Input
Amino acid sequence: MIAVFDLQFLFASALWALPLAALPIVLHLLFRRRTPRVPFSTLRFIRASERRTAARRRVRRWGLLICRMALLALLVWAVAQPARRSSASLTAGQSVAAAIVVDTSYSMQLRDRQTTLLSMANDAVVELLGQDLQNARVAIFTSQASDPPETFAAAATVQKNWRPLSPQPAPQPLVDRVAAAVQLLQQQPQPQKWLILLSDLQQREFGRPLGDMGKIHTVIIDLHPEQAASAAVVGVQCDPAQPRLGIGAQIAVRVSGPPGQQRAVNLSVASLDSPEAAARPPALPMAQLDAGGRALLRVPLVFSSPGWTLLTASLATPEDLAWAARRGELVRTAAPTATAVLQVPRPNAQADAIVRLALDPSQGADSAWPISVRPAGPLRGDERLIVANITQWLDSAAAQQLADFANRGGTLVLFIQPGLEQSWQQLPQDQKNIWLQILPGQLLWPAASGPFHGIIMRPDDPLLSNVGPTPSASGKLRIGRMVGFDVTDGSVQTILAAAADEANPSSKLRGLLMRRPIGAGQAYIWSTLPTPLYGNLATYELFLPMLVNSSLPAAGQMQALNVELGQRLALAASESPGDAAVDLAGPHGPAYRVKLSDDGGGRRFVSEPTSETGVYAWKRGQQTIAYSNAEYPAAEADLRYRLAAEIAPAGPNVMVARSVPQLQTQLQEAGGPQPRWPLPLAIVLLLLCLEALVSNWQRWRQAASPRPSAPVISAIT
Amino acid sequence: MPIPRYQYFAPGDAAKMSRLQLTARQVVEGIITGLHKSPHHGFSVEFTEHRNYVPGDELRHLDWKAYARSDRHYIKLFEQETNLQAMLVLDNSASMTFAGKMDYARHLAACLAYLLAEQQDLAGLAAIDESIHVELAPGSTAGHLDRLFVALQQLEAGKKTDFAAQLHALVQRLPRRSLVILISDLWMDAPQLSGALQHLRYRKHQGIVLHLLDKAELELPYDRPVTLVDLETDQTLQIIPADLRATYQRAVQEHLTDLRRICNDCDVEYQAFDVRQPYDRALVQWLSRRK
Output
């Protein structure tokens, strides 16, 4: 094999035949000599004719000659088998900069051939560093950005400091980490830039393709098992999220796995406060995975004792992704909420009675009822819910007391009597300011006249959970009078709205029931009183369950119960009033102190990022005051493979392998000469066609056009 | 008349020619009474017209019948028939050697000379290329024919042709109204030929053009590339006949059309001869048709 002008020929001896390209000229000359000499009477007419056609014929002759010479030259070229060797080489030493992106997400713990994918990735990195990249500049990227940021270093240095990678939380998709690696790679001075991606190529990690990589050589080592058949519990949910004692709830278990297969699922219910009081676990049906590889199991469950309950769903058979076969969900069954109906200076007795009856229909007779309504009187300080019919603006001190209650994590439910918008105008500004910490905004004056009808704006709101079908009931709520608010705070959520025009429900919507987060707590503001004078709110079928659900803790407090591994645990300050710090004990590790902080989500205790799964206990001294649960990310248990070709479309700079040896084989093949003779052959065929066209053009033209007949001598006279 | 053996006149030719006549279609001036109309009015058999009697006229020519009818004296005039003086003009340029046209022309000239002599007409011979090579004054005796046939035998093809110019000179020298028979392939400029023919007619000669053509000249029938050699100039030209054939045939066609038009305009009789057809048959056909 020899190289000529950067071209290589696998059968270079054939190039000696290149002078054959002159064959048409030789034949032409020989052909000219053999032309017979014919005496002719006169050339005068032939010369004239020849002058007319000479130029055209000359062009055609030269074209034909060149065509035939090129034809022969290209034939020789094709026979010599021109080949091209890729200039890119991973082993090009110091001219190579390689960014190795290793997927360290929890899904890489999937076992394949007696080892995990992450172990295979670790081995691959070691192999690459020790062999192909030993003289290159290398940077290692993982699913989690490092601090300090990744930098390029000599492969020997990287190898020296190498520690096997362990599973990490993946706060961002791996494709973003690849983008970061590419950005850093492009800043490197080395002429050859390689991106090596080791991943199981899950869909969640690659929501989009890698994009245009420019001149960067991309290697994807696809570690996904060829026959993955691992199933996982990807979700355990209690509906409602905070069940009530004695009120039925539903437990939903979501299973993901190979389509069409079945899995047996066990559900355990464990009480963390009193293990002996645990509810009997219901039996779950067999999970039949559909064509999409998903199954949803639902079972009813009644929580009989207050406190912390851990629901654990697990697959009966061992799975390749071991941790995903089990999943827990911590549920807090609250004790009856201590509730006070606040007395205002000029109370509306009817409204108070309705509210009391709605909060506790049995009026204390049912001990399992989740709300315990206190008799009228001063606040005791342990209330979690305060309900007030505001028939007159409370003074600044009382208003400030309500605001502080909410800030500490309590829930306020306020019914604003229509007509107060007039007195709102006369309130002192400082008093207004205190009220504006609670209310959704300034009261509008004059108020719009009714009647109005109610519209449910947030059907999925927790306030409407477990209350049955709601949208059909939206038109049954009639309001005669209500106050209007100029809502400017973006955190205010309108749960119920009122519209004046029934024909066009979207016109002139006003907030009828709004929720405003206040510190660690929240406030629900109704724009009217629940008396027949102002509408049918008291008899509205959703009024009672919504009012009861108002006693649920704020959403932020609920989210802290169950977190994914790597996230922080949080405990509302109201759970441990008066303490500046509490202890947090991990599932297996020692307890450490967590200080009270105010990070914008209210005053609360916020832990370090979780590092292990299981139940964490919040402690004040030796007393456990709350629990939190950390689980592996549910999304990583849901294994959805994406093809490498979809992530990086095939191209000259893209290689996909399933292992390092396979990659090395591919690199060797790519480094070898690749025959490039189809193009010359294609040109040869084209020239053949052209040659036939040119050489037969005259014949075809004569055949197509009628030939002029020669004069007949006998007809001349 | 004894028929000696000549190369270009066979005994069979004499037999065929003896049944034919070549007459002038216009009046010619002769010295003896013959087949041809003379410009001079005489007193013979063929009545022409009457004229008034003038003193001195011979009374034997007075038309007594006309006198009896009209009581006037008229003299009867008759056409005087005379013999023909013809000049056979051969193109002996090199182009006439193509396809045996030269021999064909010799045969034609010999036959026509014999035919003219047979009908008591005078036949002369001139061979022209760049100059006038042979010029025999018209005659009709056996000795003259012998000299003419020998001259045809000894005639060699010249090189280039200046046919039109030489024809001018020849026409100028012809003493009286004659029949001029041109035998040529006419590969010359049509305007020059036109000038020569006009001159011929101006001198009140009658002209006949016998145009010798070969099929190859009209069709350019070669199938493969050939190098053509011009017989007159020796110039060569390599051609691919298929490329040129169409345009060549069109050019030749136009040239022939021009020749016919020129002859027609000059009142010169034109006849094309295919040299691949036997000369005697072609001559018999032409003369028979002409008669």
User: Anything to note?
Assistant: Residues 93-228+639-671 of chain A form a domain with the Rossmann fold fold (CATH 3.40.50.410). DSSP finds 16 helices and 39 strands in chain A. The longest helix of chain A spans residues 44-79. The longest strand of chain A covers residues 248-256.
